[in-house]
C-alpha cells in the first residue's frame, strides 16, 4: 500500500496533502469555537451556513478548476492556492461578525476546491502504473481518515496552553508547509489526456452512476453518511459548550472520540469484508448511525453520554465510508475510473449540502434534540433506499446475455448461445446494465 511513497515527487505531494489536511482539521475545530464565541447557542446556524458554502464551492468550482490547471504552471497554481489559504487562516482570528466569517471561508473553500482537482490531476502522471495509482488513491483516503482523529487530538492538546484563535495560526502553518513541499516536488508536464474538459469526464461519471445499480445504492448510503456526519460536525460544539457548559478543549476531545470510532471500524473492516459484502457493511453502518441519532434525541443529556454516542457514530460512519472505494473500483474500467471518482466527489458533496443546513438550522431554530430526530429521518431514508436500490445479489461475475451482438462476436467467444459471465461495467459492450 505504501509503495507509491518511493516516488520522490509523489512523496512530497503526499506530505503536502497531509500538512494541509492537519491545518484544515484544526481550522474546523477553531471555526466551531469561533462560531460559539460569536453566536452562543446559535453557533450551529453559522457552522451550517459556512459548511454549506464549502459544499457549494466544491460542487461548483471543482469541475472548472481542472481546465484552469491545464492553462497555468502546476507548481505556481498549487503554491498560490496554499498562500491564499494561509492568508485567510491568519485573518480569521480578527473577525467580529458572522458575515466576515462567511466571506473569508468562501475564499478559503474556493481555493481548496481549485487545489483538490489540480492535485489529483497530477497523480496519474506521477504514477502511470494502474496498481500504484490505485494505492495512491487509498493513501489519500487514509490520510483523510487519520486527519479526522489527529486534528481534534492535536487541537485539544494545544487548547490547554493557547486560545482557540491561535489554532488558526496552526492552520496557516499547515498551508505554508504544504506550499514548501510542493515547491520541492519535481512535477511532470501536463499530459495530453488532461486536455479533455473536466466536464466531459464528470458527465461520464454521472452516466455510470445513473446506469449502475450498486452506484445508485452507494449514493443513497452517501446521504445517510452525510446526515450522521453533519450532526457531529455542526452540533458538537453547541452541545458541549451551550448544553453542558464545558470548555473548548472538551469540544475537541468529543470530535476526537468520533474519529477514534471511525478508525476502529477502519481497522477491523478488512477482515470483516472478507466475510460480508460491501453492500451489507455500508447499509449496516447507515442503520447504525440512524439508531445513534434516534438515541441521541433522548440520551445526549451529558458529556459522557455524548462521548459514547459519538464513538458508536464514528464506527457506523466508517462502515458507510471505507468500503465505498471498493464499490467504485468494481464499477468502472481503468479508463473511466477518474470520471467516476469525480462524479462521486460531486454527488457526495451534494448530499452534505442537504445535511449541513438541516443540522445547523434545526438546531438553532429549535434545539439539538430536534436536529437529532430530523437527521435520523434523513439518515434512515438513505439507509432504506440503499437497501432497496443496491441489489442483494451483486456477484463479481454477472451471468448475462447479449441479444444485441452476433454469435461470432469476440466478446462472446467463451459463451454459449450468447450467455456468459464476467465482471460487468458500463462500457462499449454493455451500454445498459444487463439482466441476469
UniProtKB/TrEMBL annotation:
Ranges where the record places region Disordered: 399-419
A GO-annotated cellular component: plasma membrane
Positions of the Major facilitator superfamily (MFS) profile domain: 9-394
Keywords assigned: Cell membrane, Membrane, Transmembrane, Transmembrane helix
Pfam short name (any one): MFS_1
Family annotation (Gene3D superfamilies): MFS general substrate transporter like domains
Membrane topology designation: Multi-pass membrane protein
Residue ranges of the TM segments: 12-34, 46-69, 101-121, 168-187, 217-238, 250-269, 281-300, 306-328, 340-358, 370-390
Native source species: Caulobacter vibrioides OR37
Xref: PROSITE patterns: MFS (PS50850)
Keyword Transmembrane helix: yes
Subcellular location: Cell membrane
Gene Ontology molecular function terms on file: transmembrane transporter activity
Compositional bias ranges of the Basic and acidic residues kind: 399-411
Name the record gives this protein: Arabinose efflux permease family protein
Main localization category: membrane
PANTHER family registered for this protein in UniProt: INTEGRAL MEMBRANE EFFLUX PROTEIN-RELATED (PTHR23513), MAJOR FACILITATOR SUPERFAMILY ASSOCIATED DOMAIN-CONTAINING PROTEIN (PTHR23513:SF6)
Amino acid at each position: 500500500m505504501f509503495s507509491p511513497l518511493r516516488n520522490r515527487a509523489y512523496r512530497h505531494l503526499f506530505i503536502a496533502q497531509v500538512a494541509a489536511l492537519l491545518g484544515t482539521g484544526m481550522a474546523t475545530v477553531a471555526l466551531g469555537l469561533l462560531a460559539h464565541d460569536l453566536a452562543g447557542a446559535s453557533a450551529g446556524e453559522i457552522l451550517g451556513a459556512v459548511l454549506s458554502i464549502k459544499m457549494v464551492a466544491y460542487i461548483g468550482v471543482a469541475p472548472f478548476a481542472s481546465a484552469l490547471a491545464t492553462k497555468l504552471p502546476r507548481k505556481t497554481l498549487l503554491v498560490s492556492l496554499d498562500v491564499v489559504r494561509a492568508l485567510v487562516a491568519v485573518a480569521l482570528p480578527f473577525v467580529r461578525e458572522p458575515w466576515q466569517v462567511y466571506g473569508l471561508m468562501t475564499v478559503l473553500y474556493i481555493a481548496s476546491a481549485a487545489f483538490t482537482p489540480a492535485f489529483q490531476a497530477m497523480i496519474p502522471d506521477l504514477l502511470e502504473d494502474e496498481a500504484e495509482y490505485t494505492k495512491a488513491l487509498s493513501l489519500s483516503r487514509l490520510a483523510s481518515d487519520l486527519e479526522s482523529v489527529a486534528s481534534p487530538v492535536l487541537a485539544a492538546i494545544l487548547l490547554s496552553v493557547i486560545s482557540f484563535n491561535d489554532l488558526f495560526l496552526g492552520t496557516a502553518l499547515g498551508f505554508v508547509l504544504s506550499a514548501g513541499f510542493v515547491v520541492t516536488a519535481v512535477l511532470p508536464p501536463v499530459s495530453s489526456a488532461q486536455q479533455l474538459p473536466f466536464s466531459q469526464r464528470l458527465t461520464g461519471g454521472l452516466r455510470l452512476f445513473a446506469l449502475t445499480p450498486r452506484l445508485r445504492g452507494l449514493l443513497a448510503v452517501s446521504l445517510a453518511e452525510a446526515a450522521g456526519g453533519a450532526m457531529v460536525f455542526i452540533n458538537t460544539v453547541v452541545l458541549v459548550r451551550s448544553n453542558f457548559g464545558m470548555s473548548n478543549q472538551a469540544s475537541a476531545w468529543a470530535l476526537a472520540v468520533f474519529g477514534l470510532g471511525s478508525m476502529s471500524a477502519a481497522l477491523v473492516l478488512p477482515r470483516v469484508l472478507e466475510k460480508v459484502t460491501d453492500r451489507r457493511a455500508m447499509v449496516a453502518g447507515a442503520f447504525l448511525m440512524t439508531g445513534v441519532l434516534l438515541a441521541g434525541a433522548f440520551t445526549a443529556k451529558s458529556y459522557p453520554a455524548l462521548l459514547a454516542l459519538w464513538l458508536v457514530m464514528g464506527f457506523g460512519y466508517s462502515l458507510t465510508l471505507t468500503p465505498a472505494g471498493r464499490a467504485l473500483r468494481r464499477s468502472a474500467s481503468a479508463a473511466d475510473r477518474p470520471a467516476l471518482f469525480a462524479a462521486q466527489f460531486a454527488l457526495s458533496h451534494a448530499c452534505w449540502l442537504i445535511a449541513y443546513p438541516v443540522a445547523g438550522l434545526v438546531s438553532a431554530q429549535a434545539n439539538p434534540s430536534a436536529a437529532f430526530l430530523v437527521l435520523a429521518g434523513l439518515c434512515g431514508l438513505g439507509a432504506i433506499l440503499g437497501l432497496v436500490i443496491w441489489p442483494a445479489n451483486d456477484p463479481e461475475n454477472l451471468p448475462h446475455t447479449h441479444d444485441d451482438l452476433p454469435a461470432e462476436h469476440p466478446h462472446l467467444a467463451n459463451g454459449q448461445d450468447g450467455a456468459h459471465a464476467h465482471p460487468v461495467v458500463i462500457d462499449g459492450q454493455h451500454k445498459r446494465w444487463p439482466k441476469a
